[in-house]
Predict the structure.
Amino acid sequence: MKTAKDLIIPFAWKDRHPILLDRFFYVPGKYEYVKKSFPFFENNQPVFIEYCSGNGQWIGERAKRNPQFNWIAVEKKFDRARTIWLKSHRENLPNLFVACSEGLIFTRYYAPKAEEIFVNFPDPWPKLRHAKHRIIRPEFLSEIYNILKPGGKATCVTDDAKYAEQMAKVFNQSPDWKMLFNMTDLPDYGRSFFNDLWISAGRTIHYLSFERL
């Protein structure tokens, strides 16, 4: 059985570089990135990508229920990414891969072509001066547009009403996307730590979906 000690980045910070390990892709910060393809999977099954994966509860269940698809969890915090990696081994999910990376960087330089992407409970960065850190912004939309096939979908989930408004605004301002729905109830979407946390706190969950034109 894999343990946390089995996932070690095998080089010093000064020697950092993107590296493909066992079902784990590590992208260091503050690095001169170069576009490059990596063999994340040994098959040609359709790929689905989740951003802001947290501890991996949502994507782990999706990968378990849909073994005919490949799933990539993108999580920038190493400890959380390692938790997902352990889950993929503990629950024997060879179709679940983890990318420890900032979402925009992974998408721009390394992500494979995808059928659909999901952004689940991203940090809302509520202060205006921090808005540049939000993952849903025009630059990110341009990058996911490049990896999605025509007709591919992007679904965003948040408990922050103002962020939901901003998400809708950013997508709707682009001619490359069409809104499919904006609702506060989607029973079959799946559970996650943050979903359960905010529902128990009485927060409203916003589900927004868009189609790539």
Summary: The first helix runs from residue 57 to 65. The chain has one domain: 44-212. The beta strands are 19-21, 24-26, 47-51, 70-74, 96-100, 114-120, 148-158, 177-183, 206-212. The chain is about 30% helix and 25% strand.
